[in-house]
Specification:
Layout (H helix, E strand, L loop, with lengths): L2 E9 L6 H8 L6 E8 L6 H11 L4 E6 L4 H11 L2 E6 L5 E2 L1 H15 L7 E10 L4 E5 L10 E2 L18 E4 H6 L12 H4 L10 E13 L8 H6 L1 H14 L2 H7 L1 H25 L2 H17 L1 H8 L2 H5 L5 H18 L3
Parallel strand pairs: 1-2, 1-4, 2-3, 6-10
Antiparallel strand pairs: 4-9, 5-10, 6-7, 6-9, 8-10
Length: 342
Amino acid sequence: MDKIITFAVPCYNSAAYMDHCVETLLKGGEDIEIILVDDGSTKDNTHEKCDEWAAKYPDIIRAIHQENGGHGEGVNQGIRNARGLYYKVVDSDDWLDETALHTVMDQLRQFAHMPAPVDMVVANYVYEHVEDNTRKAVNYKNVFPTGRIFTWDEIRHFRTSQYLLMHSVIYRTQLLRDCGLELPKHTFYVDNIFVYQPLPYVKTIYYLNVDLYRYFIGRADQSVNESVMAGRIDQQVRVTRLMIAAHDVLAIKASQPRLGRYMLGYLSMMMTISSIFAVIANTPESLGMRTELWEYLRQKDPALYRRCRYRATNAATNIPGYQGRKLSVSLYRMARKIYKFN
């Protein structure tokens, strides 16, 4: 591969803010690749902007235009076309910190000279809350060793607000291809699959304690807005079902206890999110989806069902009855205010 890293930037009607994203990526140097995936934009000049950037930096930037397939298909296109040894997704309304990017690039260049480059690199990310102009950095100092390559056997406990997100991971590109990752089209929240399905294929990890990714949050139309998530509960449930089907988590836990513990916690968190947003939507259809999702897990793996169902977070989001549902929503909103996760 002739580039150190490919940055894939899915773009959908994002002309108003994508320039800032691209400008920060260009700080990475000449040995990066940026793939701008125009996902069938029709409401602005995203299509033209992608082509303009590619014409201005032909050795770095490529533009790919596709029929609308959703964020996941944008990620898929990037994986199919990437020429970089490593692969990272950057959403078009987010950006990277220049100083942290230089640190990351220096480390990736070292890995590129190794006979067996590291499989996954992790860095911190920062929530940039537009509504109150505050920032919240998420780091992994308590979870990962720093300054050396390590394996899943050496990781420590993740806190509730500390899971790996698309913002924090950089994968070796060939690993994503080898594990058969293919995100579903026309589906939101597929980033959860991106940071879950490949994990058992990851054998070596490196953590950089730098605040690399800046995650812009707070726009009313964002997919993580509470009302938007409640309105898309069917897609949240779809993603969770795909994650349940992706791996035998308890078998992984038996062979790789620490990785399995993490994946069990993440899957349980996904069940919590699906449950609470089904309750927030509060329609017969959404509540039925919640019931069906838990029944799917029970039939698929009764032991895994029990491990997830009786965790504290799922107990709190599945309190029976009308008053129980009101209490569940109140507990969720209190947690959101404390942890500021969306």
